[in-house]
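job 3f2a | input accepted
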Amino acid sequence: IKGKYFLFVNNMKILLVDDDEQVRQLVTTALTSQGYVVDVASNGLDGWNLASCSPYDLLLLDIMMPGLDG
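job 3f2a | predicted structure (70 res):
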């Protein structure tokens, strides 16, 4: 509809696991600005624990982290 703006609310739940603070902040800001719900973990073990306790629609994993990685 011309001249009308609609806000699309997205209930997609995403888990972001990355050991780089700047990457976590950038990705979280970008995703939440689009209406996504984002949970964040700074290491593989915390990510594993979050993923085990709650269903997620998408997991974004760093593949090179110390300890348990993606």
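job 3f2a | The chain has a mean pLDDT of 88.
job 3f2a | closed
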